[in-house]
Queue: 2 jobs
Job 1
Amino acid sequence: MKYRPLGRTGWNVSEVSFGAWAIGGAWGEVSEDDALDALRTAIDSGVNFIDTADVYGDGRSERLIARLKKERKDEMIVATKAGRRLPKQTTEGYSRHNLSSWVDDSLRNLAVSTIDLLQLHCPPTDLYYHPEVFGILDDFVEAGKLRFYGVSVERVEEAIKAIEYPNVQSVQIIFNCFRQRPADVFFPLAKQRQVGILARVPLSSGMLTGKLREDSHFAADDHRNFNRHGEAFDVGETFSGVDYGLGLQAVEEIRRIVPSGITLGQFALRWILMYDAVTCAIPGGKRPEQVSENCCASDLPPLRSEAVVALKRIYEEKIKESVHQRW
Ligand SMILES: NC(=O)c1ccc[n+]([C@@H]2O[C@H](COP(=O)([O-])OP(=O)(O)OC[C@H]3O[C@@H](n4cnc5c(N)ncnc54)[C@H](OP(=O)(O)O)[C@@H]3O)[C@@H](O)[C@H]2O)c1
């Protein structure tokens, strides 16, 4: 596992880290044993950074991470999120009172006195035009409740606006083979300001592992079933907003350019790591085998330029039209 600096925090984090949404909820049943085994495998593979949120399984994901921290001495940095407990996303909802009570809940769930990194959880675009919200977060840092804070965004333009606030240390954004716009528009700015980038949904909700089929079955409580058209939250969070059938077609083309000896999922993760503006990819994983396969992507050599060019072509021909200008 290789490590990269996260913005100006002074932390060096594993370039393949761990996304803890699926072990919380909304991805079908994952037992506590499997979830803990997945987390343990991540730590054994060199992961030192875990991304979670207060709402993943209503605190379940945070509590599982607290259990892991109790049993392991390894240094672990945990980034959580706040904001999705609101029944409706409004800027007013991100009040001092609400933020304070969400932070206190996360402190309790994570069993810590300070949150390493708190991210605003895809707030409305308007929030980025309200500096007072960032002032509240500065106060929480001052009070010792947070070490650092950052944002998780839907849109590239939100990311660009967010990093105008000098204490935003990280931006979490969807970046993968099917979502390439952040690299053109946002990465140079983030590098200039030394802001960390967490590449989320790096496997496009599992699609980029190449294992999904037209008739793949997803449980009723898996968002790949219930949010395919954005019924519950932003459609971009499910398969990156790419139509399922179109995604499958593109994957078949990608399969042909994957070098021998590595999996399609590892190719997709290694592609993300080709961008030095990226701090880490945060793939989700429900089982130890998935996690170790994903972590191995860090040890692979850089992709050959022919493969990078071929992927760009597949993106431009198959995917770009439906996603590029939407986020
Ligand atoms: N709004 C936000 O801030 C937000 C939104 C989305 C995600 N996130 C964060 O980003 C993280 C990653 O995104 P994500 O979990 O949505 O999507 P992802 O990482 O693209 O896909 C994860 C899923 O792919 C499958 N998978 C993973 N590794 C695999 C492997 N090696 N082989 C086969 N299948 C594999 C697993 O599901 P199956 O085995 O069931 O297929 C896993 O749950 C989340 O966990 C969360 O921390 C944040």
Note: The chain has a mean pLDDT of 97.
Job 2
Amino acid sequence: MTGLLFGTGGTPHSSETNTTIDGIRRIAELGLGCMEVEFVQGVRMGEAGARLVAEVATRERVKLSAHAPYFINLNAHEPEKIRASQDRIIQTARIAALCGAESIVFHAAFYLGDPPEKTYSRAKESLGEVMHQLKRENNRVWIRPEIMGKPSQFGNLEEILNLCVELEGVAPCIDFAHGHARTGAFNSYPEFASILQQVEERLGKAALDNMHIHVSGIAYGEKGEKKHLTLKESDFQYAELLQALKDYDAQGMVICESPNLEEDALLLQETYNTLPG
Ligand SMILES: [Zn+2]
């Protein structure tokens, strides 16, 4: 993949219908480059449907990723809930592969009052089993735990990068809005650059060539993320983020999750294209 592609989390609002296929067509019409298929309420797409999605995406030259169901907690205290969480990741990866998607993203875990180290080792063990299974199936989709927006959620930058270092086939989903909302920090050029620097130092230059990024405006408070906003309603310094991405020559997908989806995706793409560098 060369350069950064911009697109939406889910089917654009201006699509003819809210199906994935019409979403892909609309992304191409708008001149955007990618789309994240949302399985957040469950993986309801069948194999035949996924193959059709792959055909249309190839024809329209739209790159795809998929978002796994929200109901995942790799630190659940009941073994059956861990197993159900693992199954949801595996199911998403199977359908994503048939769709021709290169990555899936998911929300890994909640601390549930456990110490972060204990949560980390549980999440790593459970995700390790998932990776083992996917390898047996020869499934090469990148499995990407996401940086989360609330301090009660497992998934700060360090935790996510550690998982990527320790588990083959795992790569980060850097959600810059969540990174900002989690602490109120990470909203300036030097802070964005420091994140990219850490990605490069921990995972190598190849990781900057294969980035998966979420961006939106965001409202937050002491407990972190409250809700997504449009970029212009929010305090998020997206132009500084885009400049850092350009300066670090980051490549891959930027998925916009603002409530106005394609409007902010286009704003991000246009801003990126007019920046120096
Ligand atoms: Zn997410």
Note: The longest helix spans residues 79-99.
